[in-house]
Amino acid sequence: MAKIDWKQEVHKRKNELIQDLQGLLRIRSVLNETNATEEAPLGTGVKKALEYLLDLGKRDGFLIKNVGNLAGHLEMGSGDGLIAALCHVDVVPEGDGWIVDPFGGEIREGRIYGRGAIDDKGPTIAAYYGMKIVRDLGLPIDKRIRLIIGTDEESKWRCVNHYFENEEMPDRGFAPDADFPVIHAEKGIADFDLKQNRNSLREKGAKITLISFFSGRRYNMVPDYARAVLDIQQEQTEILQQFNDFIYRQELTGRYYVESGYVVLELEGISAHGMEPDHGKNAGLLLAGFLSTIKIDRKGMEFIKAAVHFFLGDSRGRALGVQHKDEQMGDVTINVGIMTYNDEDGGRFGLNMRYPASFSLDEGMEKIMRAAEEFHFQVSDISNLKPHYVPADDILIQKLVKVYEQQTNEKAELLAISGGTYARSLQSGVAFGALFPGRPDVAHQKDEYMELEDLLRAAALYAQAFYELALDE
Ligand SMILES: [Zn+2]
């Protein structure tokens, strides 16, 4: 067969591709459960976007299916084998400060603008045209190709959960919802609590008593604020002076005041995503660091000492005994997203641990339990997302790498990340685009855009990827 010029095929369809994307960008497909109905469980905007894609599929002769109004697919080809691209048409709210209309689909200086342009409507339409080109050319393929459309990626993944409860799992697939070249490894993510034992009693008559402590609300964020309430019976001025010195030395922002007879200490840190705690300054841990230098009551000190011993200045779990490095996927990391303390409930740490595929979570948890016990803490409320990993020699990766290298003339380095992509919901799936290396990531930001050039490059990559993956090995 003659060699197919994938880029040329995309260019022939450039105008309709852009128009179809503009139509999709003009739908405000933001989750809205206040107008939810059975036909539109996530709101009418999201539903309209799903229907828009299904209508495109009908127009161009694909087999289409709406799956519970939460997801859907377009299909072509025949055979037992199934390969798929997993996309989503829901978007996060537009937010403020846009220079262009967030739902206008405007084109300026070679970029197409709009909420969802890069996440994930642009890549979705690129994948759609990739599939359409394979169909238009009537290429002989051995497997069925599906474009799966989710509508709840930005919040609870109810789309893919429902979809895969009811529909067949593809043999292989990719999600055009992250970065090129190929993301083949995503860390496991375990959230759990360390809770202070109930039988720790508060010491009577201490000079300083920790009444309460609060920092952070989310496991996966570094807290940027912490607050401790103290009952200080003696030497109050001296302690407040020490707090001032501490703030000054550490170059932090903080304050103190008296409220209902108690002294309140507040400290500010720097927020960051929990996937790399070292990118932030954990206000809770820093405040614990200060409290460890003054003599507070025994139960309060047990909480503070645990914070300092296990976590202060250590995001790698060394003191918990779970330090682990993986050549490809990096370190185990632990983010202390939540810290609370009061007399009734005792202390609690809400932790977000991210770990590579070569780390045993069961063994790690046992080590953490033993270490925590020494400080009178117990592990509870564990939730876990397993690592997602497709080995480099898997045929899926081999084929995608070949396609990428052929079309871009650049080496396709495999990426390992600490976050999670949509590809996780596929049994054998990787993230494949559509943000090219070196491009700024404008997803979820104001004036979100995709370079038209990248949109077309992505479509050509997806066309060839579908084709190659749909051939028998
Ligand atoms: Zn996305």
Would you kindly provide a brief summary of this structure?
This protein is an alpha+beta fold and 473 residues long.
Outline the fold blueprint.
Blueprint: H1 6-12, H2 14-25, H3 44-59, E1 63-67, E2 71-76, E3 82-88, E4 107-108, E5 111-113, H4 117-136, E6 144-150, H5 158-166, E7 172-175, E8 178-179, E9 182-186, E10 188-196, E11 208-215, E12 221-222, E13 225-232, H6 236-249, E14 253-259, E15 262-268, E16 272-273, H7 283-291, H8 298-310, E17 325-326, E18 330-331, E19 333-342, E20 346-355, H9 361-374, E21 377-385, E22 388-389, H10 395-408, E23 414-417, E24 429-431, E25 434-435, E26 449-451, H11 452-469
Parallel strand pairs: 3-6, 3-7, 7-24, 8-25, 9-23
Antiparallel strand pairs: 1-2, 2-6, 4-5, 5-26, 9-22, 10-20, 10-21, 11-13, 11-19, 12-16, 13-15, 14-15, 17-18, 19-20
Helix pairs in contact: 1-11, 2-4, 4-11, 7-8, 10-11
Zinc ion (ZN) is lined by residues 88, 119-120, 153, 177.
